[in-house]
Amino acid sequence: MTEKNKEVIRGFYQEFFNDHVVESADKYVREDYIQHNPGVGQGREALKEAFGEKFITNPTFKLEIKMLIAEDDMVAVYLKNVDTEGNTKARVVDIYRLEDGMLAEHWDVLMPC
Fold first, then answer.
1. In sequence order, which residues have a C-beta less than 8 Å from that of residue 108 and are 6 or more positions away?
2. 21-26 own/partner pairs: CB under 8 Å, 24+ apart
């Protein structure tokens, strides 16, 4: 299950965060998604709305996964937000709880560079 959960995370990051296909959240994120980041509302639609706006204002937004750690239904992702030249803008750790192969809950820590 842990490898499958890692694949879900990889697919979500590529399609949603890097390709900016906001609708891809429909296949990766539960409708009742619990968000622990106070800057983003609760539920899948709030996630789509927040990042849809972010991708418009920052069309080169990209996240590079550097490490994935999975145990049971939890996955931690260490990543970098990089600019078009590959320079690191921020380092992030996202932690997800998955349920039935979909993202159910999210926590994060962000360190600007």
1. 36, 37, 92, 93, 94, 95
2. 22/48, 22/51, 22/52, 22/55, 23/48
| φ, ψ (nearest 5 deg) of residue 83 | -90, 180
pLDDT confidence of residue 86: 85
CA distance 80 to 102: 23
Which amino acid is present at 98? L
CA dihedral 29, 113, 19, 59 (to 10 degrees): 120
Residues of the chain below pLDDT 70: none
Contact (CB, 8 A) for 96 and 78: no
H-helix or E-strand containing 8? helix 2-12
pLDDT one-digit tens code per residue, 6-17: 999 999 999 999
